[in-house]
Amino acid sequence: MVKIGNDWDELLQDEFKKRYYVNLREFLKQEYSACTIYPHMNDIFNALKLTAYSEVKAVILGQDPYHEPGQAHGLCFSVQAGTRRPPSLENIFKELTDDTGIIPPSHGDLTSWAKNGVLLLNTALTVRQGMANSHRNRGWEIFTDRIIELLNNRAEPIVFILWGMNARAKTALLTNSIHMVLTSAHPSPLSAHNGFFGNRHFSKANIFLEENKREQINWRLEDEVIQNLKLEDYTACTPT
Question: Residues 59, 161: contact at Cβ < 8 Å?
Answer without folding.
Answer: yes
